[in-house]
Amino acid sequence: MSTADDELLQMVELRGKLDKIRSQIGSKLANQQQLALILQTIDENLDQQKQEKTPVAYFVSFLSLLDQCCENEEIKDFPLATGAVYFLNLVSPYTSKGLLRPRFSEILTRIAPALTDEKAQAPLIRSSIGFLESLLLAQDLNAWNNVHNYKISPKRGLTGLLELSLDSRPKVRKGAQEAVHNILSQVPAGPMLEHPASYVAGEFALNHLISIVQENQSGKNPSKEVSSKLIHNLQLIASIANGNAWPLKQISPLCDILLEICKSADEFLVSSAFSVFEGLFQSMNSEIDNDRFVRVLDIIFDLKPSINDPHLAPSWLAVVAKAVTCYSHNIDPLQCFLKLPQVFKTVGTFFESEVQNVYISASQCLIAIASDAIDAKLLLLPPVVKESVQEQVETTIASLADITNGFLSIKYRQCAKEVAELISSLFTSLSTRANPYFLQHLETVGEWRSNEQEGFELNDVAERVIASAITSIGPELVLQLLPLNLNNPNAVGRAWLLPILRDSVRCAHLGYYIEEILPLTSYFEGLIAKGNSESINSKIFATIVDQIWSLLPAFCDLPFDLVESFTDELAAHLSELLYQKVELRPTICHALRTLVESNVVYSSGDVVNAIINQQFPVEKSKEAIEYISSSKSTKLLSVLFNVFAETPMDQRNYILETIDAYLQISSPEDVSATFNKVCTLLKKALDEEKEDDHHKTEDPAMNGKIPRLSITMMDLVVEMTKYIPESSHTALLAIFNQTIRVQDVQIQKRSYRVLLRLMETEDGLKSVKNFLPDILKVLSDASQVTLQAAKSARLLTLVGVVKSLSVDYLHFIPNILSEVILGTKSVNEKARETSYGILIAMGHKLIENEGSPVKNSLNDSDMPDSEASLKELFVMCSAGLAGGSPHMISASVTALSRIFYEFHDEMPVDFLKEMASTVELFLTSRNREIIKSALGFLKVSSLMLPEDEVRPGLKGLLASLLAVNHEQKSHFRSKIKHLIERMVRRFGMNDIEQCIPEEDKKLIVNIRKTKARAKRKKAESAVETDTIPKAGEEVNKKFTSGYDEALYGDTDSEFEEEGADEEESYGTSKRTRQYISESRDIPLDLLDKRSLAHISSSRPRKFNRKTSDYATKDGKLVFNEVDDSDPLGGKNSIDAYVEAVDQGPVRGQNNKLKYKKKQRTGDGIDWKDEPEDKSKKSSHSRPNYRRAAGGRVGKPRSRFKAGKKL
Q: Which residues make Cβ contacts (< 8 Å) with residue 515, sequence separation at least 6?
């Protein structure tokens, strides 16, 4: 890009920033308004002088304005100076460097008062820092070296920034440190590799750091204040180091003092010191910095502390880990790898420490190095790497093996666990190159685990080492060293290896499992057949058989020998087992699916592993997929289809996933042939099945039965839809046309899913558009025959259909609009959300085709045609307001509120105001369903419309709202109060208070006190260290969409519900708590399905007894056999009966037991001036049951009903 283009882009960028400031001329914030006024004044001045508004013109103008604020190097007008410097900071990056370089001294003199004046506020100083940064970045090498011996040089300006980078004000300090980093990281053009001012910055920061450390040691100032100064100074050093500007000569003293600081017990101080080290390491990232990095490493290793130093040793080890890792990533991976034996020897000496924290830190240090500092590309074999490099790598691995093998001796017994974790990490990092050097390690660790000592502390870590070895060098080598010996009673048995193999085998040889491991199942099945099936041994043998079969999916995860091992005999054997042994179906299906999916993922290039890529090239994976597709896929699909048809609906998802995997790799011809067979069976099943009543309503998933053949075939059609070739789409659409009218919920649901799945593919969407007229006619005709339970599936399909409509078929939108509007009031939440989505899709479609004709006459010959527009959608939805039923009117208002929220920016304000006024009239309705929807609409409109448009009608709106509250006997009081709170936040308390009638002023008083109470609680909770929320408080309330947040969300954290003061009975209605009832003797097994019986939403009660209740004799506790004290004695019998009835189970749908939800007594809104005293709130602790005629107990009188959400 040319220089002229760069200047043009900069001008556009600057104009955008200035235009944004100009638009704030009417802002309520004084600082924004003042900036806009200053800019307006400068613009008028430039217009009067007929100057072009260039960056240079603005720069000169604002610099002159700054001069007017100063007198005798003192600022007289701070607000105006703050604005002037703000604009100088904004304009200076776009100003020509030819202006800033020669006039550096003059400009710095003018800006100096803003940096040095003690009365200057943080905003002025921050803007001055940004301006000075731009000024220093514009200087060249000669200016930095001060070849002309000016009294005021750039280094002097940098010194001022360094002083400010230690300022006590956080924002000032951070801005100065960022400026120092940006300046030093951009070296001026010239022969120097370092910035000419780096030594000045380094010397300043290091001297300050040393003085603060000495001050801390002398104890002159409080330690907390000194710690803050140290952290600020370390942040400055980190800023310099991150810019690769720390001088080489000052590295040694810096490392020395940093390690001294690491002895501190202050974790923030130690963290800051580590950030400096990290900045030093990460800033060096090229071969030029190799010598510097090696020098840093040598200095760090020379500062090695004592192995028993519990303070300095862990910090030093952490620095070593970071240094070595950065050396590998940024400088030279090979040289770093060759130095690892020396590093392991040095760090390994800390394993001899008697301090636990030290040898744990040593282990973590070496694990971090092994995990992050070994480049996998170095472990590849020729010809990818040179033979000389391979020999060096082999020698290094052998050295590492010898060193770590020594760590397994009895000398390091106290840290055996940490050493084992290190070996596990080395197995993982070295992968196949760990063979044969680390086999002795594996044998030693295997002996630890094979001892079978119960409770042996190294069993877990030994298993982790073995698992890493299995993954890295393969199960064959591991089982050679540690054989299973399951059929050899004279050898040590290792059945415990089976679960480890199951979780660790990857990229192995399937043939090894088929030949060596799987035959063991026949051996144990023979033992089971000979013995008693109920004996313990038989159960153990059955468990071993299950564990052996569980290895099959692991060995099918990207096997290297798939073509050779997955033979017809194996496929036939697995197919036979699928038919015969139901318990093996999940395992075999998982294996078959993994066999395909692992190869598909690997062949796509998503697996980035250099070693595996060399062992098993991607081309072999593609050959394996082709082998399965051509020779096995069709037969396996037939078997899976048959097994799928024989399996209950709630137990066959895994079979469907396996079918999907094989359909994915099958050829189009095979898929088409299979589809034709399924179509034939489906037609035959539909013809044979009788239309019994139970067919229409039964749900096979609920009763665990095998579904009818027609449902099974429809499931297969749905699954195949994505893979069916385009030539078969006609037949697929014919199935959709026939099945959508079948009066069976299960068939209708699957019929709509067929069309939905078809539209998800590119070819399928193309076919849908080709047959769109017929599809639209079928959908229109099916609206009357679609069963209620299938409505949700229909609405989901309509979303895709609306999005695919072309300009010629926009008449389908008004055809289905009434159905979609009614869907917004569905009891099914998913159907409601889908209906909202259809409305939004309709709006976008009409905007996309705005002005196009909508042929309404195709729907109804009496209806005139119209033009597509977003306004037309509002008009069509508004037609429902004249509906004959309250339900339709309420649904129309709800639909209008949703599209109002979504498209309010696209519509004229006058039209939206008219719409809001129309809906406001429905507040006078006597129907609560309509009023509820109208309140939701008005909440959205009052928030979305411009403030100036809403304010004139506030008085009338508030009067209508309060009239509703009175006329409906406070049924909507919580909703109305919440809406008024939102208005208070937007329009201010004073404006709202003026619009509320005198008799309702107490509402404003209540809102004000609620707000004040919420602020007090927030302040109190900030002091408390306990972060557990109290009952009734809502934590992190989230919504699924911005519309829901606008409709139901709180105005602010300050406007919390007043019910937060009430007791737990109200709080739990918002967030149900669960309690577990557990026996002291028998722990609760959460894997047991019966454990649900021990989980309740009622808090378990304790029966506490006083110590005096127990008789004592001779200092011993004596428990009476007959308990005289009845823990329920103090409870009224009627109350106990009522509580039992209230909390007891009732028979619900399908004759199932369910527990009644505890009703809330009220909506938690108190309209009184002051909250009631807690002692008087007995109604919250026990329902207010009343006595009915005849002495019977009646239902409690609720104060008012709880309103449901929209």
A: none
**What residue segments make up the domains of the chain, in order of their start?**
1-188, 569-666, 686-785, 805-945, 970-1021+1032-1055, 1131-1206
Buried b (16+ CB within 10 A) or exposed e, 1104-1141: eeeeeeeeeeeeeeeeeeeeeeeeeeeeeeeeeebeee
Neighbours of 51 (CB within 10 A): 14
The answer to whether residue 1184 scores a pLDDT higher than 80 is: no
Cα distance between residue 467 and residue 449, in whole Å: 12
Structure tokens at 152: 């005021």
Pairing of strands 853-854, 1075-1076: unpaired
Higher pLDDT, 560 or 227: 560
Continuous H helices in 327-473:
333-338, 340-348, 356-372, 387-406, 416-430, 439-450, 459-473
Would you state the pLDDT for residue 1139? 55
Statement: 1-188 belongs to CATH 2.60.40: no
* Lookup: tokens for 326: 């950065």
Q: How many whole angstroms separate alpha carbon 124 and alpha carbon 117?
A: 10
- Residue 347 sits at φ, ψ, to 5 deg, of -70, -30
* Partners of 294 in the β-ladder: none
For 1095, phi and psi rounded to 5 degrees? -110, 125
Map residue 448 onto helix, strand or coil: helix
The H helix count followed by the E strand count for the chain is 60, 10
Q: Give the separation between CA 1158 and CA 1196, rounded to whole angstroms.
A: 12
- φ, ψ for residue 1204 (rounded to 5)? -80, 160
How far apart are alpha carbons 1099 and 1090 in whole angstroms? 20
Residue with tokens 């996309």, as numbered in its chain: 848
CA distance 580 to 102: 92
The average pLDDT across 4-30 equals 83
Is residue 56 within 8 Å of 99, Cβ to Cβ?
yes
What region, left, alpha or beta, does residue 149 occupy, with left being phi > 0 and alpha being psi -120 to 50 degrees? left
Residue 689 — very low, low, confident or very high, per pLDDT cuts 50/70/90? Answer: confident
Helix H or strand E encompassing 853: strand 853-854
Among candidates 237, 249, 333, which has minimal Cα distance to 292? 249
Cβ-in-10-Å burial (0-12, 13-18, 19+) of 29 comes to exposed
Separation of alpha carbons 477 and 465, rounded Å = 14
Strand 74-75, strand 70-71: pairing: antiparallel
Calculate mean pLDDT across residues 658-664. Answer: 96
- What is the pTM assigned to this prediction? 0.73
Q: Measure the CA angle with vertex 329, ends 328 and 335; round to 5°.
A: 25
Is the separation of the CB atoms in 77 and 69 below 8 Å? yes
C-beta separation of 1046 from 836 below 8 A: no
pLDDT score of 1136 more than 90:
no
Q: CA 261 to CA 231: how far, in whole Å? A: 10
What are the CA-CA distances from residue 1102 to residues 56, 1077, 1128, 1133 (Å)?
A: 80, 12, 11, 19
Does 805-945 carry CATH code 1.25.10.10? Answer: yes
Domain 1-188 and domain 805-945, same fold? Reply is: yes
CA distance 367 to 419: 10
User: In percent, how much of the chain has pLDDT > 90?
Assistant: 50
Report the C-alpha dihedral over residues 7, 12, 17, 18, rounded to 10 degrees: 90
Q: Is 372 exposed, middle or buried (0-12, 13-18, 19+ CB in 10 A)?
A: middle
How far is 322 from 300, CA to CA, in rounded Å?
11
The C-alpha atoms of residue 609 and residue 351 are separated, in whole angstroms, by: 33
How many residues are present in the chain?
Answer: 1206
Indicate the pairing of strand 1075-1076 with strand 1116-1118. Answer: unpaired
